[in-house]
Design goal:
The chain has helices at about 5-130, 155-170, 170-185, 190-205, 210-220, 230-240, 245-260, 265-275. The chain is an all-alpha fold. Among the domains are: about 95-130; about 170-275, Tetratricopeptide repeat domain (Serine Threonine Protein Phosphatase 5, Tetratricopeptide repeat, Alpha Horseshoe), CATH 1.25.40.10.
Length: about 280
């Protein structure tokens, strides 16, 4: 049987078409594959860009948190300093009010004592007139007092007020002698502990910190019930700071916060503890 000539030609053409189709498909696949790879590369770049951006945002958040903590710490420090300044100003105002009150009270009491002395002299004069002999009588029959009545010893309160006034005026030596005179006259009076504390304050103001420490210690040891004990401990710590002994100052500040936690001096001691190296 003869095969028609067109059949081989047709088969050859078909094979050629199939070959061309296969080449086209492989080329399209490679193109598609390249496009997919480029898409993946672009997606990877975007992911890396987003990751970098996230890292920058995270670093920025960390920096903001550090700044926030630093600002909070600075605000707390400033508030603590303002509190200490306010407490010191309040203490100064209380001292001024106490001084003014002492001056006013002292003036009124001085007037009262002067009036009493005048009344006493008037009574003595009246008594002399009543006891004087009549005219022509024997002179000198009645002895007349020839000297003024003896002066009363100064009261403890007066000595304390005068010494405080000298202290507030900056006359520390005179003030110290006044407080020492008070202790010599009335060592067991209710103002003895206060007087001993102010002796220490005189030395502190003069820059004699070692002697001030010794005088403050007398308040703690000899007058343990005095309201000046927390103040004496605080000023001891401050004096040791002035002498460069931070360790002893730290011990005294902790002692105040432990034994007198509700006092104003305890709050000041806590602040000073934070400032110690």
């Amino acid at each position: 049987m003869r095969i028609p000539k067109f059949i081989p030609l047709g088969l050859a053409s078909l094979g050629l078409c199939l070959l061309l189709l296969s080449c086209v498909q492989r080329g399209e696949f490679r193109t598609f594959q390249g496009e997919v790879r480029r898409g993946l590369d672009l997606q990877g770049q975007r992911i890396r860009t987003l990751q970098d951006e996230l890292r920058r945002i995270s670093n920025r958040l960390d920096a903001l948190e550090k700044d926030r903590d630093a600002i909070r710490e600075q605000m707390a420090k400033l508030m603590g300093e303002d509190l200490v300044v306010m407490q010191q100003e309040m203490a100064t105002l209380r001292n001024e009010v106490e001084t003014l009150t002492h001056r006013q009270t002292g003036g009124l009491e001085e007037l009262k004592r002067t009036q009493e002395r005048l009344d006493q002299r008037v009574k003595l004069l009246e008594q002399r007139l009543l006891e004087s002999p009549p005219a022509g009588g024997v002179p000198g029959a009645t002895a007349l007092p020839g000297a003024p009545p003896p002066q009363e010893a100064p009261k403890v309160e007066d000595l304390y007020k005068e010494a405080r006034y000298a202290f507030e005026s900056g006359e520390y030596e005179r003030a110290r002698k006044g407080f020492q005179d008070l202790l010599a006259r009335q060592p067991d009076s209710r103002l003895a502990g206060n007087a001993q504390f102010w002796i220490g304050e005189c030395y502190f103001r003069e820059g004699n910190y070692k002697q001030a420490i010794l005088e403050y210690e007398k308040v703690v040891s000899q007058y343990p019930q005095s309201t000046k004990v927390p103040s004496a401990l605080l000023k001891q710590g401050m004096a040791f700071e002035k002498l460069g002994d931070a360790e002893t100052a730290r011990f005294l500040y902790r002692k105040i916060t432990k034994e007198h936690p509700e006092s104003d001096q305890a709050r000041i001691a806590e602040h000073r503890l934070k400032q110690l190296p």
